[in-house]
Amino acid sequence: MNALTFLYRFFTLLFATMLLFGCIGEQTDNCVQYELTVNAVTPSGQDVTSSGTITSIDLYLFDENGFVRMVPKGTSSDYLFGTDRNKSLTLVAWANLKGDSLKVPSLAVGTSLENAQIGLLETESGYNLPVTDLFYARRRLTSENLLTRGMQSDTVKLVMERISAGLSVKVSHLQKYFGGEEEKLHIVLRGVGTALNFLGNPLGKEAGYIPTMHATQGKDEWMAPLFRVFPTQEDYKVFVDLYRNDKLLFTINTDDEGNPLKAVPGMETYITVDFDYARLLVNVNVLPWGSGGGQYTEF
Q1: What mean pLDDT do residues 148-153 have?
Q2: Which of 80, 88, 154, 233 could form a disulfide with 202 if both were Cys (CB 3.0 to 4.6 A apart)?
Q3: 187 phi and psi, to 5 degrees?
Q4: Which of 88, 83, 124, 117 is nearest to 103 (CA)?
């Protein structure tokens, strides 16, 4: 065994021993050590952990009394931590938590899963910033299948799924219908929450996004390219307001068949609003993430 291998094993063992502070004294009969691997997958099951989609992983440990501590990272996406085997634990993983686009919490010990939250940041004008490509997972840990005595180890795999939603809006033949100039058009998207708790549930007051809109050269058409938001809360729907300067021209919240507009977690939703008919036509297409290639999809 060379010196580097010896030092690596020594510090790995020392690190693991230090993590077992949840066990009492030197008695290890009631201790369990978890070897944890965290992965991120798409709805089709494709592993994107090492594809560059995941830039950071934050792992939170809760027990029956609330937040306990962060779990420090080992090598790659592997984690190692120890605790009392009699504790009921819950692991929560978030990928791509970034302080420049989200309110990332610094949790106090004892904070519940319901009260632990990440939130949206606001611009100076009071609107919300789009979110990062956010992934989430939660798993309950039990030691029921371990032996009754002695220090035990268990291997756990935690699989994260995309929780952010993609939205894009296209408005066609607006000038034909309303007349006037198309300059200074913008949309406000409302109806999604301003926070997600550590159960993965959207909550908080109604958020408001103002995505950048671009005119299509030579066409009576404006488009807001794909941007990311928190998913729609249960029994809520997305509202799209179109303004010319400060004047509200219209609001939509359903498609042409009366279905409520939704921001679906892990999916891209493309909304078309077309005034080239005797009535307003609203089409919606919900696609797997990446299907649109970052561009708007024609129907």
Answers
A1: 54
A2: 233
A3: -115, 155
A4: 117
